[in-house]
Amino acid sequence: MNISFSVKIPQNIRYGTGSLRFLEEEVKGRYKKVAVFTDSGVHKAGLTEEPVRWLKEGGCSVEVIKDIPAEPTCRQAQDVVERFLESGAELVVAVGGGSVMDVAKLASIAVQGEKVSDYVEQPLLGRKRVKSIMIPTTAGTGSEATPNSIVALPEQELKVGIVNSELVADTVILDGNMIRELPEGIAAATGMDALSHALECYTSNKANTFSNLFALEALKLIFGNIIEACRNRENIESKNKMLLAAFYGGVAIAASGTTAVHALSYPLGGKYHIAHGISNAMLLVPVMRFNRAACHKEFAEIYDAVCHGNARKEEEKSEWLISELSGIVKTLKIPDKLEVFGVGKEDLDQLVEAGMKVTRLLQNNKKAVTAEDTRRLYLELM
Ligand SMILES: NC(=O)c1ccc[n+]([C@@H]2O[C@H](COP(=O)([O-])OP(=O)(O)OC[C@H]3O[C@@H](n4cnc5c(N)ncnc54)[C@H](O)[C@@H]3O)[C@@H](O)[C@H]2O)c1
Ligand SMILES: [Zn+2]
User: What is the pTM of this model?
Assistant: First the structure.
């Protein structure tokens, strides 16, 4: 059998409680001016203080851009990128969730004369101009590992992924202290996003031996830690493990690809502004139930890796997986109806049309997804 895949991942990974201090070593003698990207929620939570301190210890002057919008539009990302170019910073450090990291990655390839909208049109246009360091404050998106930046296009009511290996960060710092105070609802939604990444990548048509290593390890870490990490502020080790799992989920995306959960989630984010983690968490069980017949083998392998129970038959093992996922969704109080977000049956046609356009991800799904299937899947949430 021939196997072929390509992957580019960050070169330096600093992991564990207190690993923020490596920032000093990362910059000392190399950079004079550094830009720190963050958003108002992360800034108010005091999470930029320590990174800024270490950067200054490393001899850098620091400009903090602290108003990156959540789930940014292409235009909003462009505004931030322009401010970054004006700052003259030689390095970009993201302290935040996927929204902040995605914009920081775009800043790392930015140059006068190119616009973020150009990268939407021609994803491979950009070249890395400055190095980037990612410090995630959610254990979710895995953006710290991926070659993707996601921006919303409000005029098309869509979110799109710009995928270019030049966007891959240079250094990742995974420090459990950064998610210690994460509100339970955000921890739950973003943790479910990481779970979706790992599960979708493992069951993807693009799955391969390399991505499977990371997806399976992420699943072990997530099944063992997601509830504890969301609920227990003091359990810093389970938070570290969720950060590692989210990173591994990102590596799995870089080498494989997500499937129908993320495909059908895009319109819910683009048009109805449902947070990325929530829409994925809502779709996860319906889509995995739909996929079950095509994924018995993969589900059984996951069962063997994470459960170590007595089930023998593949069907029993895959049944366990679906019911375990439903249990996690319920325990974490993920909403199960779209009406909470003002989405009703009158929106169905548009949702189906938009969901079916995300062919980049739908084609990764082991079981082919028709428009009628998509309609039924959205209907399960109504
Ligand atoms: N590039 C990729 O590979 C990739 C993958 C998946 C998702 N995404 C994108 O990432 C974005 C979502 O990122 P996200 O789910 O991490 O959420 P986010 O970055 O949008 O943050 C959500 C909210 O949580 C707050 N927050 C974050 N960390 C906090 C902390 N430690 N304490 C208190 N509040 C905190 C933020 O202020 C914000 O209000 C979406 O735009 C999505 O499309 C990108
Ligand atoms: Zn995701």
Answer: 0.96
CB distance 261 to ligand 1 below 6 Å: no
Residue 98 Cα to ligand 1 middle (Å)? 4
Distance CA 188, CA 309 (A): 26
Distance CA 283, CA 262 (A): 8
Sequential pLDDT tens for the chain (382 residues): 667 777 899 999 999 999 999 999 999 999 999 999 999 999 999 999 999 999 999 999 999 999 999 999 999 999 999 999 999 999 999 999 999 999 999 999 999 999 999 999 999 999 999 999 999 999 999 999 999 999 999 888 788 899 999 999 999 999 999 999 899 999 999 999 999 999 999 999 999 999 999 999 999 999 999 999 999 989 999 999 999 999 999 999 999 999 999 999 999 988 888 999 999 999 999 999 999 999 999 999 999 999 888 888 999 999 999 999 999 999 999 998 999 999 999 999 999 999 999 999 999 999 999 999 999 999 999 9
Is the C-beta atom of 150 inside 6 A of ligand 1?
yes
Q: Residue 44 CB: number of other CB atoms within 10 A?
A: 11
Ligand nearest to the CA of 105: 1
Domains of the chain: 12-179 (3.40.50.1970), 184-379 (1.20.1090.10)
Phi, psi of 369 (to 5 degrees): -110, 115
The residue to mutate among 141, 177, 271, 272, having the most atoms of ligand 1 within 8 angstroms of its beta carbon, is 141
CA-CA distance, 198 to 145, in Å (whole number)? 13
Ligand 1 binding pocket mutation candidate from 38, 102, 134 (most atoms within 8 A of CB)? 102
At 139 the three-state DSSP class reads coil
